[in-house]
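Annex B. Sample input.
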Amino acid sequence: MAIKTKLSIFIFLFFLINIAICREETDPELKTCKHQCHQQRQYDEHDKRICMKECDEYHEMKQEREKHKEDKDDEKEVENPYVFEYKDFDTILDTEDGRISVLNMFDQKSKLLRNVENYGLAVLEAKANAFVSPHHFDSEVIFFNMKGRGIIGLVEQDNTERFNLEAGDIIRVPAGTPIYLVNRDENEKLFIAALHMPSSPGSAPLNFEAFFGPAGRNPESVLTAFSSKVLQAAFKTSKGKLESVLEEQKKERIFKIRKEDVHGMAPKKSIWPFGGQFNGPFNIFSNKPSFSNQFGSLFEIGPSESKSGLEGLNVMLSFANITKGSMSTIYYNTNANKIAFVVDGEGYFEMACPHYMSSKHRKSSSAYHKMNARLRPGMVFVVPAGHPFVTIASKNNNLKIVCFEVNAQRNKKLAFAGKKNIVLALDKTAKELAFGLAAEKVDEMFKRDEEFFFSYNVDESKEDRGHADV
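Annex B, continued. Sample output.
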């Protein structure tokens, strides 16, 4: 018995020594620390053991700090693959009277956004009575007037058509069409969101650098790229006259104009019954909401909508107004990829993602990760098709979101909660097998009268206040 006990102690000590050796081999700092403990001549054996114990404790603290730092880095990485803030926008034009900012190539931020890699989002902000000089893009563009009152001029070969823009107006601008914009309000700013897309399959990548045409040298016109001889021949004019015209414009690309000039550009009512070359704006609020109750409303315009200008684009536009203290249902799009811009209010966003896994969660049994973010005006978030998500308005303000949904044809919104949800739609046998409960018990939880928008009324004491309390 004594021999067995001694053998057990020997084996135990053997393993301890090997563990210590392995730790020292993997961390040179720990090895050096213990070596110095042994070299201290003034230490007796008791002091040396204390010294070595302190080396071990320091080593453990160091490992904990490094692990905590990795966890923090992982959390930072998790927060934003699908979310864009103001710092993620590039300002391509900034003047005293307005600016244009863009989000170009979504997949540059994350490979998870490859579904929308061929699309770009731009935002125009123009002060009262500001004029945006004529320009064109090499991409197809859908403008959505988020706030303010504007005028848009679209130039064809032999004339210009002008349209008033109100909040909620949508207008499609074909690639290469020269346009100008005016803020016709004397007090309020004009805010326009623009979705850029390739003009045709296989066309060149998006280019957000607008081609400014009839301006002079400040701002620079595309004409300045050509030699003087070419311009003289093209316009059949002298070099002196050419330079006097091109150098006359001394203002920026967005600048304030006189009130009489604003009124002079107001659209004229056409007596021609067939209209002009371009489809005029279509207001999203002229349709009845797809869903509406006391907790919110959702307006939608799809590619099948007549006179919307979206025919053939495979794009849907939607505008959600979630009442303060309310939420949307948890739902997903079957086909459409959502690019959402927060127009007004504050709130919160959550989404389930099976594709993104941080190093902290790679060994987790869960296959899904919660992507979340606080929402503020000017922020953008992307929801790929098939990803369930929810948006929640703060207790203080309504949350207003405009969404460009690409690949929208044959798309359906499938909800997990509300009057019509996919759980209630399951047949009884499948429901009982999936939940391991009687179908009646499952229906008891999932059945409710409201559809799509609900009150966000929760017991705050049970919530994760760091995220869900909005």
